[in-house]
Design goal:
7 strands, homodimer, 7-stranded mixed β-sheet, Maf protein
Chain lengths: 191, 191
């Protein structure tokens, strides 16, 4: 079965396509559709609004994924604006904000919105962890070099893609989608 | 003439209503209309999209204003997400990001979008200045305590409303709107 993924981010596409392949889904990257992103504290709402708008353009079953890093000592910052904050402040900016801060708890959240008529579904998953003292590792993207998932000592950027996908918020939200597709027996007919 | 201002921010409403009174406009605060805010690097686009959506709900001539603080050493951060960053990091977070940074240039930008059928207009104004070393003053709101406009030594929060409105980005964008209304002779008939 074939499903479109509206994203300009090649890394995200690669992560997602590896996970959904386990469910027999062939994911196709869609970069041409302009992405409508609203400002909201809810990633689920941001992703669903974007998916609906993309569906109106494309007319084919698709998913949109939005993710954010929520740092407790910073009242959830950068949250839904993680991508903008990564581009402007980077990992260094986050580390500077946390200088002298002892509680470094954080979580990554991923919201995967699927518009597969007649269905609209959003799958949300989180992975808890802490913010490292300094960036480590050359894999992954975004804030991966400063995020250490609970149960490990390495940052996401120190793991290979398969290892990261064992923990990752995005992989888990995508697996929820995969299970849902399987349980609904949504096969080539609908997709 | 009567014009609606879609905003939940009482401070903004007071600033704006004082300025537009100079042009014979009676500004009415509109808090009930849900505000559609998109993610964009352009305040003008954010304000215009919100104004169009509000007009579809209300059906009366209205304005929406969006503002942001752009700090050069932080690649424009917090920019269009200033309100979110103020709520999470506050002035202290901005000062921490600028610790040890010599170039403290910044500007405030304001975009006022007006939907007054058959017209749609956006007025954009900026005020340049620097980020203070520490918060000063008890007036104003948001990042006012750390912004010193060029040509003065006081922060916006150390000025009274009338003084601030002599410099302010918001007041200047609103005056552009006022002049435009006057030049078009848009009077009670249309509003």
């Amino acid at each position: 079965m074939k499903l479109y993924f509206a994203t300009g981010n090649r890394h995200k596409y690669e992560e997602a396509s590896r996970v959904l392949a386990e469910y027999g889904v062939e994911l196709v990257q869609l970069t041409r559709v302009p992405k409508l992103e609203i400002q909201s504290s809810s990633l689920a709402e941001i992703a669903l609004t974007a998916a609906r708008a993309a569906y109106l353009e494309l007319g084919e079953p698709l998913i949109v994924e939005d993710a954010g890093l929520y740092i407790e000592a910073l009242n959830g910052f950068p949250g839904p604006y993680s991508s903008y904050v990564y581009k402007t402040l980077g990992c260094r900016g986050i580390l500077k904000l946390l200088e002298g801060v002892k509680r470094r708890d954080a979580y990554f959240e991923s919201a995967v919105a699927a518009v597969i008529p007649p269905y609209e579904e959003v799958f949300v998953a989180r992975v808890r962890g802490i913010i490292a003292r300094e960036p480590r590792g050359g894999e992954g993207f975004g804030f991966d070099p400063i995020f250490v998932p609970r149960g490990d000592e390495r940052t996401f950027a120190e793991m290979g893609l398969e290892e990261k996908n064992r923990y990752s918020h995005r992989a888990r939200a995508l697996r929820m989608l995969g299970e849902w597709l399987r349980s609904r027996k949504i096969k080539r007919a609908q997709l």
